[in-house]
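> example.struct
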C-alpha cells in the first residue's frame, strides 16, 4: 500500500521524536560512558606493559642461568687443567695449559659481569612494574566509582529506555527501508542527532540557514520530501509564527510595520513577565 508523502513525513517526525527522547536520556550520562571506556583502555594498556616487562625479566633470568652453567663448565675445565699441570713433561706444555686457564678465568669474569648487569636490568624492570601496578590500583578505583555512577544512571532510565526501544522499532517498521537508511545516516552525521526538522523563523531548524520562500511553500505542500540545501536534513514542515500570520492584506506598509512592531513589543513584554516570575 502506497502511503502519501505527508504520511511519510509524519512517520519520520514521530521517529525523530522518539530518537530525540533517547538522546535526552543519553545526554544525562554525559561523558561518563566515554570516561569509563577510556579508563578500561588505559588499564588494558598498563596490563600489557606489565606482562611485557615480566616476559622480559624471565628472558633475562633464562639467559642468566645459561651463563651460570657456562661458568660451572669453565670451573670444571680449569680444575681439569690444574690437574694436568701436575703431570706436565716440559715448560712449553706448562705454559700452554697456563694460558688456557687464564683464558677461562677471563671468560668467567666476563660472564659474572654480564650476570651483574642483567640483575641491574631486572631490578629496574621490577621497579617499573611496581610503579605501573600503583597506577593500575589507583585507576581501578577511579574506574570502579565511575562504573557505579554510570550504572545508577542507566538503572534510573532503564524502563524509559526499554519502552522507547520498543516504540522505536515499531515506528521504524512503518518507514520504507531506503528512507530509513537516509534518516539513520543523517542522524549519525548530525552532531545534535536531528535528521528531521521544521523550518522555523524562515530558517532550517537544524543548521539555521535560510530556507527560501518558494522552498518553504513546497515544504508546506508536502508533495515530495524536501531536504535542507545546506545540511541535507529533512524539512518536515514550516512552523507558523503569530507575527507572520498577522493579516497584512489590504493594509498599508506602515500599518503592517506598526503591527509587526506591536507584536515585537508584546513578545518582549511577555518575555520580561516570564523572567520576572522565575
Ligand atoms: Zn539545514
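> example.seq
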Amino acid at each position: 500500500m502506497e502511503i502519501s508523502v505527508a504520511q511519510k513525513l509524519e512517520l519520520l517526525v514521530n521517529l525523530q521524536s522518539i530518537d530525540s527522547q533517547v538522546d535526552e536520556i543519553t545526554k544525562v550520562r554525559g561523558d561518563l560512558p566515554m570516561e569509563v571506556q577510556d579508563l578500561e583502555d588505559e588499564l588494558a594498556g598498563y596490563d600489557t606493559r606489565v606482562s611485557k616487562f615480566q616476559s622480559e625479566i624471565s628472558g633475562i633470568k633464562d639467559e642468566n642461568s645459561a651463563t651460570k652453567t657456562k661458568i660451572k663448565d669453565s670451573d670444571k675445565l680449569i680444575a681439569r687443567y690444574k690437574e694436568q699441570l701436575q703431570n706436565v713433561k716440559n715448560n712449553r706444555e706448562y705454559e700452554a695449559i697456563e694460558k688456557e686457564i687464564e683464558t677461562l678465568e677471563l671468560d668467567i669474569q666476563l660472564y659474572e659481569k654480564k650476570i651483574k648487569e642483567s640483575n641491574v636490568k631486572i631490578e629496574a624492570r621490577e621497579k617499573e612494574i611496581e610503579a605501573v601496578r600503583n597506577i593500575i590500583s589507583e585507576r581501578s578505583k577511579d574506574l570502579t566509582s565511575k562504573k557505579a555512577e554510570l550504572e545508577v544512571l542507566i538503572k534510573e532510565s532503564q524502563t524509559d529506555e526499554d519502552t522507547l526501544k520498543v516504540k522505536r522499532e515499531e515506528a521504524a517498521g512503518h518507514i520504507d527501508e531506503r528512507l530509513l537508511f537516509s534518516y539513520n545516516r543523517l542522524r549519525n552525521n548530525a552532531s545534535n542527532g536531528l535528521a528531521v526538522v521544521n523550518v522555523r523563523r524562515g530558517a532550517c531548524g537544524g543548521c539555521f540557514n535560510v530556507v527560501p520562500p518558494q522552498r518553504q511553500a513546497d515544504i508546506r505542500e508536502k508533495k515530495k520530501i524536501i531536504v535542507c540545501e545546506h545540511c541535507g536534513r529533512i524539512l518536515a514542515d514550516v512552523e507558523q509564527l503569530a507575527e507572520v500570520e498577522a493579516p497584512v492584506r489590504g493594509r498599508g506598509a506602515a500599518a503592517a510595520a506598526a503591527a509587526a512592531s506591536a507584536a515585537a513589543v508584546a513578545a518582549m513584554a511577555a518575555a520580561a513577565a516570564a523572567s520576572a516570575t522565575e
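> remarks
Residues 204, 206-207, 209, 228, 230-231, 233 surround zinc ion (CB under 6 Å).
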